[in-house]
Specification:
It holds the Pfam family Asp_decarbox. It is an enzyme of class 4 (lyase). One of its GO terms (molecular function) is aspartate 1-decarboxylase activity. Substrate binds at residues 56, 72-74. Belongs to the PanD family. β10 (129-135) and β11 form a beta hairpin. The chain contains 1 helix and 11 strands, in the order βββαββββββββ. It has one helix at 29-35; strands at 2-13, 16-18, 24-27, 42-47, 53-60, 68-71, 83-92, 103-107, 113-123, 129-135, 141-142. It has 2 domains: 2-91, Beta Barrel (Barwin-like endoglucanases), CATH 2.40.40.20; 94-142, no CATH class. The protein is mainly beta.
């Protein structure tokens, strides 16, 4: 079994940090539902401002509030306004990679959804894997840019 991306909130901004709340991350249910993240699901959190990386579980907050609140010990890893990447994962057999279609939401500074993307791995005519990023409102793929290119 291998670990793959199942859903991602990319560039969502921290709205609050609550050291005295039970550990977790509080997220807007609308964002979670659009990406496919469930309550109590474990997620990886990567702080784009500091490089901090943590793992915690999701609790749903107030619908429509656009909140992203780090709770408990996780509150020490961020400041209000920090952009985060929140990634849910799933375990699959390697040969199932072409069956995975994770949703990726990108965000404005006010935590409005800017784009809805889908990641896809497909095989070319020679059977080699290729990676594509698809925009929800556009059937063609966005060219994937490898680091340094």
């Amino acid at each position: 079994m291998r670990t793959f991306v199942a859903a991602k909130l990319h560039g969502i901004h921290v709205t609050e940090a609550d050291l005295n709340y039970h550990g977790s991350i509080t997220l807007d249910p609308e964002h979670c539902e659009a990406a496919g993240i469930l309550p109590m699901e474990f997620v990886e959190i990567w702080n784009k401002a500091t490089g901090a990386r943590i793992s915690t579980y999701v609790i749903y907050g107030t619908r429509g509030a656009r909140q992203c609140i780090l709770n408990g010990a996780a509150a020490r890893t961020c400041q209000v306004g920090d952009p985060l990447i929140i990634c849910a994962t799933e375990q699959r057999k390697a040969e199932e990679v072409t069956e995975i279609s994770p949703k990726v939401l990108t965000f404005t500074p006010g935590n409005e959804v800017a784009e809805v993307l889908t990641y896809r791995a497909q095989r070319d005519a020679q059977g080699r894997l290729q990676f594509n990023i698809l925009k929800e409102d556009q059937p063609q793929s966005i060219p994937y840019r490898a680091a340094g290119s």
